[in-house]
Amino acid sequence: MHTILNFPDPNSHLIHVESVYQVHDNQPFTLQLATWRPGRYEHQNYARNITFFKIKNNFGKNVSFNQVNTNQWEIYPEDDQEIHVFYQYYANQPDAGGSWFKEDLVYINFINLLLYRKGSLHTESCTVLLNLDSSYILDCALEIKCSKNIFLLSANSLMHIFDSPLLASTSLKLHNFNVGGVNIFLSFFGNITPIFNDLEKDFSKFIKIQIEIFGIFPETEYHFQFILPCFNITHGVEHSKSTVIFLGNLTDFNFNDNYIKLLSISSHEFFHAWNICKIRPKNLQPYHFSKSQFFEEGFVVEGVTTYYGDLCLLKSKVWTFDTFITEFLVNVENHFHSSARESVSLMDSKFFLWVDGYQPSNLFRKVSIYDKGAIAAFILDIKIRKITNNIFSLDDVMLKLWTNYGANSDGYTTQDYKTIIEQICESNFDTYFESVIFGTLNLENDLKSSFEYLGFELKFLPTSNFYEHYFGFKMTASGRVTAIDIESPASHIFNLDDLILEINNINVSEINTLVESKNIEVRFLRFNDLYIKNITSNGNTYFLNPTVIQLKNPTEEQNQNFKLFCKL
């Protein structure tokens, strides 16, 4: 398969596509567009971006075809040696899983826009020719050849090119270095000038730690591709040899929240190079992009990765324990502020993600495989350390998972994961899996016990916003309701996305002047209908915030546990 991409009008965001397919027996065949992509386990309607679709043979004659559903086209060749499929793709999805063509940027996830012959995903080689000005600078994990205004990308399979996003701009900033024999490439698009020496120092540290855990990196190179737009977004997507990371509204790369966020998401995505790109659940082996592939190991795929992304920054001494625990407590807060935590298990997410995606749906719908998954991983890590007297940890589980099910295996199951844990610990983990993974146990006691093992105390303290604390709702600065505790007084008044205008006759823009009260009057809009309601506190408290405090007199054992956990 050979594809030519042209970029005539950046303002239209339309990429002009011509793909050439060889015809061998003149039998009808099907062209398929992916319905989802790795790293986002929900349906993606890429076909809505395709326009001006037509097919001709190598003599310029029209070829008959029939679109049989939203993502498949049946082709009927007649004595043709090859067919040329022409269409335009609307590339205006500025996130880490989309494609974005504008005046100063060509960013492509090829899985969004390339049609592939059904059944050829892993067998058919592919080349892509890009008609771009030679002033463009490219970053991609594929082989790139350049001649005048033409760039040629080559892939040994369609899956290979689907797994290798392209970043191209005349202002792309590049840097590369080597860590343990692995070539690391950093590319940045945006108005910020990165301090590459600092980035290289910190990236090298967490990369080394992750390679130590698994013993080897499965590739010879890895590309961190950063897009820094002028709007709020935090989004990363993993690939075997690269990751695309969107971080919006950054002002600098000093050691502040922006840089912490950049390091966290970078370490997270790099850990995915093992944990999903190679160590893959059985139900995802192999990928079939024409249909949903439900799998129940999201708590390993994303939960363990969320935990380890930050843990490796701690172990590599890029982060202090204070930074690590601050970030981890965000996961704890998100989970304990979820109304679904007492009715929905981690196992239930295997369907919910595919059905309604990653956005909030309703108060009772789903828990996060990232937040609860990270908490479950931390509890498991400490449990393993306790049982084995710190001889083993979750590191050893991930190494065994890599050894047994990495790269060329048929994939692992939840039972395989559990068996590895039990073999390492020589202990039964039925209770952990039944309560934490398959069940809806309140994790507060397990978390408190885990922190105590390290010499710390976990507390849940009142929020500074009294309307959250007494009435059980959260809102944005503009008054949009974003969370409601289902046991709170607010649950009888608000819906998610209601727009609060005033509380006790104080405009939400001046909410800091509001006097604390256990009785409030709220004026709010729901679908442009105005409501005026009174809410009275029932005496309970909601949305408590987790905090961790070091014990005044930790034991020697606790101090030793802490040192081994942090790799001090």
Description:
The protein is of the alpha+beta class and 568 residues long. The chain is built from 14 helices and 28 strands. Strands 4-7-2-1-11-14-13 form a seven-stranded mixed β-sheet. α8 packs across α12. The mean pLDDT is 93.
What does this entry show, briefly?
With 568 residues, the protein is α+β, with helices and mostly antiparallel strands. It contains 14 helices and 28 strands.
Keywords:
single chain; about 575 residues; alpha+beta; 7-stranded mixed beta sheet; 5-stranded mixed beta sheet; 14 helices
State the low-pLDDT regions, or none. none
The mean pLDDT is 93
Strand content: 25-35%
Contiguous helical run count: 14
Quick one: biggest sheet?
Answer: 7 strands, mixed
Please state the structural category: alpha+beta
Which sequence of strands runs across the widest sheet?
Answer: 4-7-2-1-11-14-13
Quick one: how many beta strands? 28
Please outline the helices and strands.
Layout: E1 2-6, E2 14-22, E3 29-32, E4 50-57, E5 64-69, E6 72-76, E7 82-90, E8 100-102, E9 105-108, H1 110-113, E10 116-117, E11 126-131, E12 137-139, E13 143-147, E14 150-155, H2 158-162, E15 166-169, E16 173-179, E17 182-190, H3 196-214, E18 221-228, E19 234-238, E20 242-247, H4 257-271, H5 298-315, H6 321-336, H7 349-356, H8 371-387, H9 394-405, H10 414-425, H11 430-437, H12 444-453, E21 456-461, H13 466-471, E22 473-475, E23 481-484, E24 499-503, E25 506-507, E26 519-526, E27 529-536, E28 545-550, H14 556-566
Parallel strand pairs: 1-11, 17-18, 18-20
Antiparallel strand pairs: 1-2, 2-7, 3-6, 3-10, 4-7, 5-6, 8-9, 9-15, 11-14, 12-15, 13-14, 16-17, 19-20, 21-28, 22-23, 24-25, 24-26, 26-27
